[in-house]
Model the fold of this input.
Amino acid sequence: MEPEWAPAAPQESEAHASLARRLADNVARAVQVRRATLEHVIVALLAEGHVLIEDNPGVGKTALARALARSIDCQFARIQCTSDLLPADVVGTNVYDEQEHRFEFRPGPVFANIVLVDEINRASPKTQSGLLECMQERSVTVDVYTHELARPFLVLATQNPIEYEGTYPLPEAQVDRFMVRISLGYPSPGDEASMLADHEAGDRVLSLAPVASAGEVLAAQDAATRIRASQALRDYVVRVLWRARDDARVDLGPSPRAGLMLLRAAKAHAMMGGRDHTLPDDVQAMAQAVLAHRLVLGPEWPRSTAAEVISDAIASVRAL
Done:
């Protein structure tokens, strides 16, 4: 049965595509990053997902998150993870007010619109788990009281995959909360030379001004949910998931939640292209970023990668 809500109009999709381009162009003024990678971050924002940025030190992970936050006129918070960071430092806690003789809730940094969780794998598992409810349900429960988070709400978490001393690997349940995982990589020699010239006088991120409001982002998120996806397109997503699950190299395949996130990401990608309907091309464009980090390969396949499994699944499943 097709959804009952009103689908997004073509002109509406084009207007929100213009918003996405403004955001991407503004971020690119301060951070040297591949356009496709930057679009994946914007897709996650429009699809109400979260982003895990995993790469070597010094390639611009934190700068990318800060640049996106400065491009939107909304509240930004940064959490620098350390081994002694407590869940209450993230979500907030109840503090006793001696004058009022009652406890008052003091919200933590997750109550901002865009939250940068820097070096998330340096936080203890107890603190990492404090983000689970925030990311999935967009609410925080403290002493049986539930507090709704702000909207829009986006978590941008960074981690260094090559340094393991004093770190706590993210459990699968936490990794599965991220809609996309991206890597920035090193810039080309020409881009790196341009970056040296651009940043010679100071931090370019600080020069960015907002190009979108929180209300505009919320409207784009609402429109993304109303991008049309046919039954054939949804069947295509399911067949890609099952092909990855049935791969002999895979011990743990993508979950049904992965399929939901892939469909939402594909809708947002279609809207960024100015369309009011989703194509298999949108699914293929987002499949690696959405699915690869959800796969666990068997130890007998040390030379295979999750990216190869997803590429094989896309190549072997025919879009009808």
